[in-house]
Design goal:
A hairpin with a 5-residue loop joins strand 9 and strand 10. The chain has 2 helices and 11 strands; from the N terminus they run βββαβαβββββββ. The relative contact order is 0.13. 13% of the residues lie in helices and 38% in strands. It is mainly beta. It is globular, with a radius of gyration of 16 Å. It has an 8-stranded mixed beta sheet with strand order 1-2-3-4-5-7-6-8. It has a 3-stranded antiparallel beta sheet with strand order 9-10-11, with no helix packed on it.
Length: 196
């Protein structure tokens, strides 16, 4: 692939990057959900107004292919309190509203939960999928043993990594694999771009 223009703001810890694959492209949006987070303050807006304005502009850009939005905090996983958007209800509602009106297919990718999983839920009237990937260097048995109501795959809580493969042949499809350290595929989830 060829990297497109970096849309970072100087001195900021959030940015967007275009990955270009011939005539196709993926917009990767990286959020900073740590700098402005205030644990124990549920009314905290989590991103800071500057980042909220930047995110709204990034999502307003027309894009027919795919957006990947990387957020350290999980959007759907409720058990991992503090490392979840659920701990900040007003911010979560604001983020959901932006996801709902965003144009084109998108996927959330999060890494704060210690297990790998795929969740599917609602952001307003829009169905959104979240790929949770973590655990390459840690094992957690207690957290995540009970599947969340939004989980459609997992959780897998042994050491693992996630692999996302995009097939650009029509109809465009995505395959997300949860792979253990021996290289064995533990779980797989496939979706078509038109469903996102």
């Amino acid at each position: 692939f060829v990297q497109g223009p970096n849309q970072a703001w100087p001195g900021k810890s959030y940015w967007a990057q275009w990955l270009v694959f011939g005539k196709d492209s993926v917009q990767c949006i990286f959020l900073d959900t740590w700098r402005f987070a205030r644990p124990g303050e549920p009314d905290n807006n989590l991103l800071g107004e500057e980042q909220w304005n930047w995110l709204e502009q990034a999502l307003a850009q027309p894009h027919k292919k795919l957006r990947l939005i990387f957020t350290a905090k999980s959007f759907f996983w409720e058990q991992n309190k503090g490392d979840s958007w659920h701990s900040f209800p007003p911010a979560r509602a604001r983020f959901a509203a932006l996801l709902e009106k965003a144009k084109g297919p998108l996927l959330l990718v999060s890494g704060s939960h210690p297990c790998a999983a795929v969740a599917l839920g609602d952001a307003g009237k829009r169905r959104v999928a979240e790929l949770q990937t973590n655990g390459l260097n840690q094992v957690r048995w207690r957290l995540g043993r009970t599947p969340e109501k939004a989980a459609i795959i997992g959780p897998y809580c042994q050491r693992n990594f996630g692999l996302l493969t995009i097939s650009w042949n029509a109809p465009v499809s995505l395959k997300y694999q949860i792979i253990d350290l021996s290289g064995f595929e533990v779980e797989q989830w496939t979706a078509y771009l038109g469903d996102l």
